[in-house]
Design goal:
173 residues; Rossmann fold; two-stranded antiparallel ribbon; 9 strands
Length: 173
């Protein structure tokens, strides 16, 4: 499946979640087994020979792709979640959004300094959420191999806020 075919599974929803926003809906892609398989393969491919030991994925849509990418790479899966959803002791990072603030958490024992980590999410927009995830990973002194997303909204400049980390996005708008 080529990129044009894959892009045809992304549906634009105007004025969601607020007027002026065009939401990129991935649910048609998730519904099609060929499109989903192609997306996961494309996310994993550039990192196949990078020695990734853990895929850290961001709640919630990142989990969908991250667990499959982890299998493709023969790596473990590490969930990065919204506050108060993880049962064990955890680390937290708060970050600022254009409309407020949020936080992400990870278990204290999720990674070690020996890990080579790939962050996976469905979308890179302003870089706030992915940046928070990378901050958490760096707190373990783990090696951040890269970031892989299905969609990147290039016009929002999120990539520039990620301190030169390798970013691989399948579809760019």
């Amino acid at each position: 499946m080529n990129l044009e075919q894959l892009a045809s599974y992304i549906r634009d929803i105007p004025d969601f979640p607020k007027p002026g926003i065009i939401f990129k809906d991935i649910t048609p892609l998730l519904r099609d087994p060929e499109a989903m398989a192609a997306a996961c393969e494309l996310l994993a491919e550039p990192f196949r020979d990078s020695g990734v030991t853990a895929v850290a994925a961001i709640e919630s849509r990142g989990f969908i792709f991250g667990s499959v990418v982890a299998q493709h790479l023969g790596a473990g899966f590490v969930p990065i979640r919204k506050p108060n959803k993880l049962p064990y002791t955890r680390r937290r990072h708060e970050y600022v959004l254009e409309y407020g603030s949020d936080a992400l958490e990870i278990h204290d024992d999720a990674l070690t300094a020996d890990d080579r980590v790939l962050v996976v999410d469905d979308l890179l927009a302003t870089g706030g959420t992915v940046g928070a995830a990378t901050h958490l990973i760096r707190g373990f002194d783990a090696t951040l191999v890269g970031i892989a997303t299905v969609i990147e909204l290039e016009f929002l400049g999120g990539r520039q806020k990620l301190d030169g980390v390798t970013v691989h996005s399948i579809l760019r708008y």
